[in-house]
């Protein structure tokens, strides 16, 4: 190893693909090298067994290109044939780099134990236990979610879902956890839950694990039993590995999201392990597995300090956003009675009106851009994170029933995917590359138009998507509530920190001012954003001829209410009575266009 080499470490599993880019620097004690982390991030899951080769190439292609070495360690990459296949894919992405591949077990060992002896217990969406003594490796678990993965997030979630149905079948009653799961998934009954499970993949089910832990923390004894069962299995595997390696007082390092996120699981594991391995030294691993991947790529132990916190400049820039300022008119919320609170909220709505009025010109231009793209065979994409992403998905979902449009015509893209619609996944917004990959996966082309929605104007996921869209020739619009991100010196130039999207075709600023609750952009910013999207999408549909006067003439008659509306539209436009209009619609198969004709 030489100072200045760039080393990429990648660890992929069922939850995410985490990566870190490090640079070697001269060690204090020559000739050793140490590593300085210069970049890091997360991308979608990349389990080697569950992800196609093309999909892996797409994910890896988003990682830094200028590297000297790469260590890529993925769940499911267990055989020599697997490692060879993964290496070939990596060489397509980094043809001049030295590549090391393997399983996430390997990177977990390197991160948690370096070159020392001990046992690593991994509990994420799946689970595995791996031990080392000298050159000898012993493994337990990690057989995948169909046959194994006991103690992982998938295991805990499936056990909880089975319990719900078993209690229903045996006692015709719902346990407390049933309502919690239905709420988490925005479902209404057990039939809908079963249909959801039948189409859900491993990761979607594993993502319910936090609901299980939440219920256990609140005193749900049945959920605590499931957690204890998972911890028990992991302890049994740990004891088996320790016995095979003759480790009487092993170092046991815990890695994976379940241990890092939920201390209740760590406590349950410690308590059970102490019974049969009282001298075991149990601790949460200090280094992330992707750092272990980088260490393996470097072919030597080293020291890496993972600077994950934002720089002071980034902190200052975020704090300067108008949406993060305190509102002087609401500084005493906790002292207000109900009426005073309502009056403050209602009074603040005038700033939404003012912001929209100030953006009339930009909104009109947005209608023109969107209508032109749709007329020429393109599609409209809303891209956002958190509240902004949910608002985009909401508006997109309303277009087909309102205007009879194909579902693909207007699409909402939210950081974190569908689960982020009903459970907070705010951390999903922090990676530009994930936003760029979202654009690639939807095969966005030059005829399309992308509207990035970011109240602060700085969301990396959104800016990464806008930048990638611009690269492939797509028309781009930024909708923000922070005037500071729009540069005054170049028309259409967007400045932001820490990420940058350059030369958007149009920037729409809705300067609603500070929120009543500081930083809660689901309030005025959310209201202004929803109205702006209403204006843009409805305006574009009007331009495309999907409205006659102020009546919907392409609506889908998929419910009693909508059929009644269709009858009234036909009666109005054909100057006929209600019964005659309904007979016409029934005869035409409820085709409004056929009856009223085209203009």
Give the overall pLDDT as a whole number: 85
Return residue spans where pLDDT drops below 50 for at least 5 consecutive residues: 300-312, 314-319, 488-501
How many alpha or pi helices?
A: 22
CATH class of the largest domain: Alpha Beta
- Estimate the strand proportion: 15-25%
Distance between the termini: 73 Å
- Global structural class: alpha/beta
For the sheet with most strands, the description reads:
6 strands, mixed
Portion of residues in helices?
Answer: 40-55%
Number of strands: 18
Outline type? globular
What does this structure look like?
The protein is 46% helix and 16% strand. It is of the alpha/beta class and 599 residues long. The protein folds into four domains: 125 residues, ATPase, nucleotide binding domain (Nucleotidyltransferase, domain 5), CATH 3.30.420.40; 163 residues, ATPase, nucleotide binding domain (Nucleotidyltransferase, domain 5); 221 residues, Rossmann fold (3-Layer(aba) Sandwich); 46 residues, no CATH class. The strands form four sheets. A six-stranded mixed sheet has the order 5-4-1-2-3-11, sandwiched between helices. Strands 8-7-6-9-10 form a five-stranded mixed sheet, sandwiched between helices. A five-stranded parallel sheet has the order 13-12-14-15-16, sandwiched between helices. Strand 4, helix 2 and strand 5 form a beta-alpha-beta unit. The protein is globular and about 90 Å long. About 6% of the residues have low confidence.
């Amino acid at each position: 190893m030489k100072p200045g080499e760039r080393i990429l470490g990648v660890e992929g599993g069922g939850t995410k693909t985490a990566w870190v880019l490090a640079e070697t620097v001269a060690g204090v004690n020559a000739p050793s090298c140490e590593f300085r982390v210069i970049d890091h991030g997360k991308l979608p899951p990349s389990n080697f067994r569950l992800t196609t080769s093309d999909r892996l190439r797409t994910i890896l292609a988003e990682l830094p290109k200028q590297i000297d070495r790469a260590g890529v360690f993925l769940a499911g990459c267990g055989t020599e044939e697997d490692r060879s296949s993964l290496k070939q894919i990596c060489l397509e992405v980094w043809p001049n780099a030295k590549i090391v591949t393997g399983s996430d077990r390997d990177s977990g060992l390197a991160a948690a134990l370096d070159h020392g002896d001990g046992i690593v217990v991994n509990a994420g969406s799946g689970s595995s236990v791996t031990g080392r003594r000298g050159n000898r490796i012993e493994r337990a678990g990690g057989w995948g979610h169909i046959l194994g993965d006991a103690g992982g997030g998938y295991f805990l979630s499936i056990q909880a879902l089975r319990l719900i149905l078993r209690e229903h079948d045996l006692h015709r009653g719902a346990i407390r956890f049933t309502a919690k799961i239905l709420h988490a998934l925005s479902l209404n009954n057990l039939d809908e839950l079963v249909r959801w499970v039948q189409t859900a993949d491993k990761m979607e089910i594993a993502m319910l694990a936090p609901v299980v832990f939440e219920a256990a923390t609140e005193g749900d004894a049945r959920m605590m039993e499931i957690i204890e069962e998972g911890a028990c299995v992991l302890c049994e595997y740990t004891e088996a590995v320790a016995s095979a390696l003759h480790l009487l007082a092993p170092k046991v390092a815990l890695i994976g999201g379940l241990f890092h996120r939920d201390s209740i699981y760590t406590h349950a594991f410690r308590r059970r392990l102490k019974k049969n391995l009282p001298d075991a030294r149990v601790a949460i691993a200090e280094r992330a597995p992707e750092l272990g991947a980088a260490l393996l790529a470097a072919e030597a132990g080293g020291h890496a300090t993972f600077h994950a916190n934002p720089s002071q400049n980034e902190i200052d820039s975020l704090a300067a956003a108008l949406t993060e300022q305190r509102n002087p008119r609401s500084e005493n919320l906790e002292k207000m009675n109900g009426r005073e609170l309502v009056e403050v909220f209602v009074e603040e709505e005038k700033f939404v009106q003012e912001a929209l009025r100030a953006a009339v010109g930009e909104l009109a231009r947005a209608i023109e851009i969107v209508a032109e793209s749709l007329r020429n065979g393109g599609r409209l994409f809303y891209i956002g994170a958190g509240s902004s992403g949910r608002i985009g998905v909401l508006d997109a979902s309303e277009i087909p029933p309102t205007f009879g449009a194909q579902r693909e015509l207007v699409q909402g893209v939210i950081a974190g995917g569908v689960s982020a619609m009903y459970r907070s996944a705010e951390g999903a917004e922090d990676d530009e590359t994930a936003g760029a990959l979202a654009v690639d996966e939807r095969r966005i082309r030059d005829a399309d138009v992308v509207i990035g929605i970011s109240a602060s104007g700085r969301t990396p996921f959104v800016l990464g998507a806008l930048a990638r869209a611009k690269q492939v020739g797509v028309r781009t619009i930024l909708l923000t509530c922070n005037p500071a991100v729009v540069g005054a010196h170049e028309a259409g130039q967007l400045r932001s920190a820490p990420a940058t999207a350059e030369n958007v075709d149009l920037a729409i600023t809705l300067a609603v001012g500070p929120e009543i609750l500081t930083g809660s952009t689901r309030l005025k910013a959310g209201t202004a954003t929803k109205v702006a999207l209403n204006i843009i999408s409805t305006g574009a549909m009007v331009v495309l001829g999907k409205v006659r006067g102020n009546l919907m003439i392409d609506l889908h008659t998929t419910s009693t209410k909508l059929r009644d509306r269709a009858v009234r539209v036909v009666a109005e436009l054909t100057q006929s009575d209600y019964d005659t209009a309904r007979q016409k619609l029934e005869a035409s198969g409820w085709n409004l266009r056929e009856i009223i004709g085209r203009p």
